[in-house]
From TrEMBL:
Residues 196-205 have a biased composition (Basic and acidic residues). Belongs to the sulfatase family. InterPro entries: Alkaline_phosphatase_core_sf, IDS, Sulfatase_CS, Sulfatase_N. This is Arylsulfatase. GO terms for molecular function: arylsulfatase activity; iduronate-2-sulfatase activity; metal ion binding. It is an enzyme of class 3 (hydrolase). CDD domains: iduronate-2-sulfatase. The lineage of its organism: Bacteria, Pseudomonadati, Planctomycetota, Planctomycetia, Pirellulales.
């Protein structure tokens, strides 16, 4: 019979097993949904995810707090719910909405860690906290020149001479823009084989920068906190050709929704991004759907390979057994599910994220947890595992006890997520069996045991009136909690 350790004993065990101050590698992907093999999606190849899962713990019910890049990252990097960060869109900056908030990397840096970041960790370079958070953070990489651009440049120079000539520059910029716009476009998203090698893509460069830090021992005598921000599978869906070859379009599988699906679901629960992909709500376009799904899956397998290089370097440099690894995403993503495309929804496919955590000497190999976990829990978890005092402002709850014993119950029964709809918010609470959504235009209620893909809204079914009442009360409690750390924004003197 397994003896459940007290939290104190667990921390002592963790300290002795992985040293007083373990290294931390935090990997966050951009727009990655649960189309990975470790989340039970059988039609994609993600061997790195699988290898890490075999060494650590996979969480099957992990959720973001806001299914958009900026607000989600502000939330998990601060350990606060979006209503407390005040970051409810991609333009807001927590340094203005909630001044003096200490971010996760800053906290580790202030506590003796060498911290480094590459790629998209904070929402963008403008939102990055710079030297306050990082000991080293090179500028963001970009893809090398695409072969189609090289071809266009060669043709241009044959006709007009060098693109470096001052007289040619405006004309070449216009010609290059005409070539790149379809590939870099977000409406409709650019997609297709890039013609580049892995290392010529920005994410290939990001991974190799981390590898360089690890090989050079850039952290010196300090423990490190390295954040690897993976850009893909964010649009445009470009990846090296070989990853597209893994997914012949005719073999791609997906669920086909009924045409009247949205008759029973509040319209606010949808997002209009499907229009930018050139789809119609309630109308299936299979050839086009396969085309985009192939490109998305190619991007996922591409980033899986890049992450694999980093994890192998940890092993090669004898760092793997003293490094906590967290692999996750900022939010989910629709690929035609509910006839929707992109993010900004509170369905599971929009709010659920892959989450794999490996803590040497603590997590059992190949372990799983069905606990309700939120990304806001990452900050307190890593703080506790590092043996640091917990910052007082954190609203998340450490999952360190679950990492030691997956049978343990998490402190929270519900995951809570919000998203904006104009000046209003939509809300969702979800437990093991039910998801409840509240919108300006109505409510959602899904019995997840019978309807795991959330296609039968029973909010208006009188048989579930008591369940609806119960979840309304849960939501009100969560709303009050999520707003509890709100602070006044900075007031400009201008």
């Amino acid at each position: 019979m397994r003896i459940t350790l007290t939290l104190t004993c667990f921390l002592l065990m963790a300290t002795s097993a992985i040293a007083a101050r373990p290294n931390i590698l935090f990997i966050v992907c951009d727009d990655l949904n649960t189309h990975v093999s470790t989340s039970g999606y059988p039609d994609i190849q993600t061997p790195t995810f699988e290898a890490l899962a075999k060494d650590g713990m996979t969480f099957s019910r992990a959720f973001c707090q806001y299914p958009v890049c900026g607000p989600s990252r502000a939330s998990f990097l601060s350990g606060l719910y979006p209503e407390s960060t005040g970051v409810l869109d991609n333009k807001s900056d927590i340094r203005q909405t909630r001044p003096n908030t200490v971010s996760m990397p800053q906290y580790f840096k202030d506590n003796g860690y060498w911290t480094a970041s590459i790629g998209k960790v904070f929402h963008n370079e403008k939102a990055d906290h710079g030297d306050v958070a990082w000991s080293d953070a090179p500028p963001w990489f970009e893809n090398d020149e695409l072969p189609v651009v090289t071809e266009a440049r060669n043709k241009f120079e044959q006709e007009y001479g060098s693109v470096e000539k001052a007289a040619n520059r405006p004309k070449w910029r216009a010609a290059m823009k005409a070539v790149l716009d379809p590939l870099n476009a977000q409406t409709p998203p650019g997609h297709g084989p890039s013609g580049l090698r892995d290392e010529q893509h920005s994410d290939g460069k990001n991974a190799r920068q981390v590898i360089n830090w690890l090989k050079r021992k850039s952290h010196g005598d300090k423990p490190f906190f390295i954040a690897l921000g993976i850009h893909k599978p964010h649009v445009p869906f470009l990846a090296p050709d070989k990853y597209f070859d893994l997914y012949p379009r005719e073999q791609i599988q997906f669920h086909r929704d009924r045409a009247d699906l949205w008759n029973s679901i509040p319209r606010d629960a949808s997002a209009n991004r499907f229009k930018e992909f050139d789809f119609e709500l309630g109308v299936e376009n299979e050839p086009r759907r396969r085309e985009f799904m192939q490109a998305y899956h190619a991007c996922v397998s591409f980033i899986d390979a890049q992450i694999g290089l980093v994890l192998q370097t940890l092993k090669d440099e004898s760092l793997y057994d003293n490094t906590i690894i967290v692999l996750t995403s900022d939010h989910g993503y629709h690929l035609g599910d509910h006839f929707l495309w992109g993010k900004v929804t509170l369905f599971d496919i929009g709010a659920k994220v892959p989450l794999i955590v490996r803590v040497p000497g603590v997590t059992s190999a190949g372990s799983h947890s069905d606990a309700m976990v939120e990304l806001v829990d990452v900050f307190p978890t890593l703080t506790q595992l590092a043996g640091l005092e917990m910052p007082q402002h954190l609203q998340g709850t450490s999952i360190a006890p679950i990492l030691q014993d997956p049978s343990r119950k998490h402190a929270k029964d519900y995951a809570y997520s919000v998203v904006s709809r104009g000046p209003n918010l939509g809300f969702a609470v979800r437990n093991q069996n039910w998801r409840y959504g509240k919108w300006p235009s109505g409510e959602e209620l899904y019995d997840l045991n019978k309807d795991p893909h959330e296609r039968n809204n029973v909010a208006n079914d009188s048989r579930f009136a008591e369940r609806l009442k119960e979840l309304r009360a849960v939501l009100a409690e969560k709303q009050n909690m999520a707003r509890s750390q709100r602070e006044s924004p900075t007031v400009s003197d201008d």
